[in-house]
Amino acid sequence: GQSLEQPSEVTAVEGAIVQINCTYQTSGFYGLSWYQQHDGGAPTFLSYNALDGLEETGRFSSFLSRSDSYGYLLLQELQMKDSASYFCAASSGNTPLVFGKGTRLSVIA
Amino acid sequence: DTGVSQDPRHKITKRGQNVTFRCDPISEHNRLYWYRQTLGQGPEFLTYFQNEAQLEKSRLLSDRFSAERPKGSFSTLEIQRTEQGDSAMYLCASGLGALEARSSSGNTIYFGEGSWLTVV
Hints:
Radius of gyration of chain A: 13 Å
Distance between the termini of chain B: 33 Å
Largest sheet of chain A: 6 strands, mixed
Shape of chain A: globular
Largest sheet of chain B: 7 strands, mixed
Order of helices and strands of chain B: EEEEEEEEEHEE
Structural class of chain B: mainly beta
Radius of gyration of chain B: 14 Å
Shape of chain B: globular
Mean pLDDT of chain A: 94
Helix content of chain A: under 10%
Strand content of chain A: over 45%
Structural class of chain A: mainly beta
Oligomer: heterodimer
Number of helices of chain A: 0
């Protein structure tokens, strides 16, 4: 089977940096994706890592270590609008994306 | 709007009734996925199509659920004899079949706004 583990909740202060970790157990692993979902909305794609290392896209960065079966999403210069749920998802072969249960990020003033 | 669209956005039905949801994917995408999501959980895979072929079905998909993609474009998800446990958001997503197995384009899917189902 495939499973992903991520913290259920994280709280951070506006303007700060927060890291959301994800560990996975997936056979035939291809890559790790991150999605953002605001309450009542659809998940939207943020990033995808197939290779080890850090990928940066504006205020968001995503990291992958294949040897550790671990990745994280880094959000910098937090804004109130970043309050949302963040999901890691694993790709493997031709099987559909498997999602973690999500991390609810609350950004406080 | 060229994103994934779903209809209806909200459906309230009585237990035992049948419901059908429709999904129109991004036009150039050959893969179409159905997921289900309940509060506080991540999306759970139900089934997916490559063109008109249904390639995989989850064990979550009981025989009351059926999905079609007759011409490889839009898809429908029908739930027969609905139960209260079917209450959830049904998400459709589309993507490109991976030409390069580990490529971002081949492993990224784009979701619609979802169809909320409430069974009373």
